[in-house]
Amino acid sequence: MKLWGGRFGKATEKIVDDFNSSIHIDSRMYKEDIRGSIAHARMLGQCNIIEKEDAAKIISGLEAILGDIEAGQVEFSVSDEDIHMNIEKLLIERIGESGKKLHTARSRNDQVALDFRMYQKINIENIVKKLLELEETLLEKASENIDVVMPGYTHLQKAQPITMGHHVMAYFQMFNRDMERFMDCYWRTDVMPLGSC
């Protein structure tokens, strides 16, 4: 099932399919793709855009697919290009015509933007957690070395004496600025793109 397949009179070569496929990269976003699709299906049903029964079938189908992926029972296909098409194809195979209604009021770009934002938020949270652990370690080391005197350097030359604690805290401040940048990125990423189609 190719989004652009109708533009050609015959099947494309395998090398073209491999070139266009991103499943080897975006397969890591399967949770975000399914979670976003469940939220979208729930909205479609609650707003009576599709039948509530169809929305329920879509949601239960997606939940089953998520379980199968996590159990290692799903092999993604390069010919289905990306994680979105792989999951959509599985859904339609499992629940039939109701699965085709999932894309009502949602463009592929909406879906990609949502998946990527959700994925990035999780990564930012993990990085910030690691930075906090590193900062705790730096604070401990600074405390332990508060009275240890060492030469400070400026322009690669020895300058005034400083303590090892102060030197370590300089790194604490650098990592703290990095963490603030990640948190700013999180805030900018935490925007719902669904509904913009």
What features would you describe in this structure?
The chain is mainly α and 197 residues long. 62% of the residues lie in helices and 7% in strands. The chain has seven helices and two strands. It has helices at residues 14-20, 23-26, 30-46, 52-70, 83-95, 108-144, 164-189, and strands at 149-154, 157-163. Helix 6 packs antiparallel against helix 7 (164-189).
* Fraction of residues in H or I helices: 55-70%
In the predicted model, the low-confidence regions spanning at least 5 consecutive residues are none
What would you call the quaternary organization?
A: single chain
Computed structural class: mainly alpha
Average pLDDT rating: 91
How big is the Rg? 25 Å
Distance between the amino and carboxyl termini: 22 Å
Total strands: 2
What percent of residues are in strands?
A: 5-15%
H and E string: HHHHHHEEH
Largest sheet at a glance? 2 strands, antiparallel
Work out the helix count.
Answer: 7
Strand order across the largest sheet: 1-2
Give the CA-based shape: elongated
Strand and helix layout:
Blueprint: H1 14-20, H2 23-26, H3 30-46, H4 52-70, H5 83-95, H6 108-144, E1 149-154, E2 157-163, H7 164-189
Summed up:
The protein has seven helices and two strands, in the order H-H-H-H-H-H-E-E-H.
Keywords:
197 residues, mainly alpha, two-stranded antiparallel ribbon, 7% strand, elongated
